[in-house]
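Query structure, 165 tokens:
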């Protein structure tokens, strides 16, 4: 059941990461003047950076969370890496794809730029890492290594207490 929920969550997370990063990128790019070296719209750039930070935070939680099924990160990772591989094989067809998927407009430019810059490949590789940890696939909640660590710490604490007396 944990992996079924993880798969569904991964499917929902994929477009959220794609569109969140693309929209944040576009909004950030429209809010400053690179040649004049000044921010033209502070509210927009703060919102864009907040969205990009939220995308990074969600990715970080998904990567680090031991309670989450590895499918939560594996599904978006495979989608992002697959999209990047497809881009390397047939760039014309892949760059045409954002125009066919809603919403149209500035978002299309963001999707194309992040795909062409390799950022989606980087995100995909980062999200792929948790699926390599064997303990993420098991449903056993008691991790023997953690239990050994904490029991060793308790022993060290007791020794230190005896020395202080």
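Result returned for the query:
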């Amino acid at each position: 059941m944990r992996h079924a929920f993880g798969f569904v969550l991964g499917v929902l997370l994929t477009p959220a990461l794609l569109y969140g990063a693309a929209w944040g990128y576009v909004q950030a790019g429209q809010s400053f003047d690179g040649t004049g070296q000044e921010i033209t719209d502070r509210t927009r750039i703060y919102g864009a950076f907040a969205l990009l930070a939220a995308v990074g935070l969600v990715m970080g939680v998904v990567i680090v969370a031991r309670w989450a099924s590895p499918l939560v990160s594996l599904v978006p990772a495979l989608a992002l890496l697959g999209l990047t591989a497809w881009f390397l094989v047939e760039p014309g067809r892949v760059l045409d794809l954002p125009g066919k998927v809603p919403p149209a407009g500035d978002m299309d430019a963001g999707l194309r730029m992040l795909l062409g810059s390799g950022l989606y490949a980087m995100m995909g590789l980062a999200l792929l890492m948790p699926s390599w940890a064997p303990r993420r696939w098991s449903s056993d909640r008691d991790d023997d290594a953690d239990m050994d660590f904490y029991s060793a710490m308790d022993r060290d604490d007791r020794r230190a207490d005896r020395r202080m007396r």
